[in-house]
Design brief:
CATH architecture: Beta Barrel
Shape: globular
Strand order of the largest sheet: 1-2-3-6-7-8-9
Largest sheet: 7 strands, mixed, barrel
Helix content: 10-25%
Distance between the termini: 16 Å
Strand content: 35-45%
């Protein structure tokens, strides 16, 4: 399954069969290397909240997991616009962050995740991943550091509520990508760092019908 350039699709994170977040994105490219996506500032998004309306990162995981009554809350993407590259078959994606003042490339972010599964219902399509929380932050000079290690450990302590069955595999994937970072090979070789979105890609006013179809993962 390939998505056409410019198509609006739903990039969704899945947690134990529930939708964790939804981000409408434009397809920049979809080929043998993988899927390249564009997330514009102020794009309407959805995030999972607990019974008290709290996001997963706003309270200790024990409190969040034990609250029950999960739902979805609409909002907007207020972070900088970014590219997301999902290498074909890989257990990670690479995000290209921009400086909010200059709108130029600033850093990479390696998001460790289960490989995406695509779906296409005709009027709406998307790709579902499982975010595994541990990440690698990479500066423009390719110096790097692990990110969210404490969060990863906190959640692993509750295996009955968490969605990562093999933490060693997650870290091993991060270490593999770090070698690519240090070697300066694709996609850490400057590719797409000067990307400019198509001016005709207007931000969607709302999420299209069908964005909340059951996860395929």
């Amino acid at each position: 399954m390939r998505f056409a350039r410019g198509r609006l699709i739903m990039h969704r994170n899945v947690r134990r069969g529930r939708i964790g977040w939804v981000r409408p994105v434009r397809v920049v490219a979809d080929d043998e290397r993988g899927l390249l996506l564009w997330l514009a500032r102020d794009t309407p998004i959805v995030n999972e909240v607990d019974a008290f309306g709290r996001g997963i990162r706003s309270v200790p995981f024990t409190d969040w997991a034990g609250s029950g009554g999960f739902g979805l809350k609409a909002g907007a993407w207020h972070g900088p616009p970014l590219l997301k590259f999902l290498p074909a078959g890989a257990a990670h994606s690479v995000w290209f962050f921009r400086d909010p003042l200059t709108d130029r490339f600033a850093s990479w972010y390696v998001n460790l995740e289960e490989p995406g599964v695509r779906w296409d219902d005709g009027p709406v399509a998307g790709i579902d991943i499982v975010d595994q929380d541990l990440d690698v932050f990479v500066h423009a000079d390719r110096s790097w550091s692990w990110k969210d290690e404490d969060e990863f450990a906190e959640r692993l302590a509750r295996p009955g509520d968490y969605w990562v069955p093999d933490p060693d595999a997650v870290r091993a994937e991060g270490e593999r990508v770090i070698k690519e970072v240090e070697a300066g090979v694709f996609p850490f070789d400057g590719t797409w760092c000067d990307f400019t979105p198509d001016p005709g890609w207007l931000d969607p006013p709302s999420l299209p019908p069908g964005w909340d179809r059951p996860p395929v993962r």
